[in-house]
Task: structure prediction
Amino acid sequence: MDIMDIMEVYCGPVPQIDNGFSIGSTNVTFRGQAMYQCYAGFAFPSGLPLERVSCLADGRWERLPTCLASQCPPLPDTPHANATILNGGGRSYGTIDRFECEPGFIRTGAPVILCMSNGTWSSAPPACRRACCPTFPTIKNGFIVDTTNEYLYGDEARVQCFKGYKLSGNNIIRCGPNQDFLNPPRCDDINECSSSQCDVACTECVNTPGGFHCKCRKGFVSLECRPVGDLGLTTGGIPDDSISVSGTEPGYPKEMVRLNSLGGWCGVNAESGANWVLLDLKAPTVVCGFRTQSVSRLDGNVAFTSAVRIQFSDDLTDVFKDYTNPDDTLVEFRILEPTLSVLNLPVPMEAQYLRFRIQDYVNAPCLRIEVMGCTRLECADINECAVDNGGCDQKCIN
Result:
């Protein structure tokens, strides 16, 4: 037997590899194995964390494994985003990408992502969604038609002016890139007197913000007008900012004081006369009556005003007058049932500001109301001779 037949085959020291290293071996003779691992940022084409090579019978090591630079998968498209490479390039390990959304869009997710050593991105690319305009512009003497919608970048909302005002500017406003509405219009007062709606022979037209009234000239008087109709609580002709209340129970806001509203307004005071609703009619207006409804409460009870008094004025700085009979006795309107009640004034009155005071109620001081009346356009002549001959010593001629 030749001595070479009994000699152990030796493959030599474990060889080194590029971008990786040996983590040990079983031995360096025939059938021995060496184990390899790649440096961070590199990987074997097989995707395995470890590779093994064997010592062959002819004294050579098997083909050594190769460590290749890690590659992250291609990034998906990110609509409305601009990507900037801060470091590296392509999809190789160490590449850093920064994402910025276009104007009018808000980022959701990390602004910067990194291609990591394991060949994955540190996170998914961010998403860019349309920015929201969270607040509406204040339209003095006007309003946004639908404030229940969510308005995103590029969406349009419509503006409308209150009765007695006209639009100055575009009635369409657009949600802009900075999360606010662009170029809101104004609502300017209409000078109704420029169209001579009043009878100039017996009245003088007086323009007021949001309205007008025909003031009787000296020697003329009248509280009659036609046709009598609703003054605008039901239709919105009387805007929310023309309604004031003494206080509000949570869940029953003043905006719901309008007749036929889905809820209703309720005050918070238990005392008689302490709960009230004040209306600004924008100009002295002839009032002939009002209608009321009950309010269905959240606890299942039905509440309604059972007694109400009216106070009025043409100037908020003046003391309000009580509505009285011709003999100066206070008029208290009584409501007996929680149904639609129609209450007519014994004598029409004229005022710009009306205050309805709740004197009594059932279950809670709650109210839904509409006021009826009209705008007087003409006045009747006063016959001064009808009383005491007009104070004349001779025949009085009117």
In short: The mean pLDDT is 89. The longest strand covers residues 341-362.
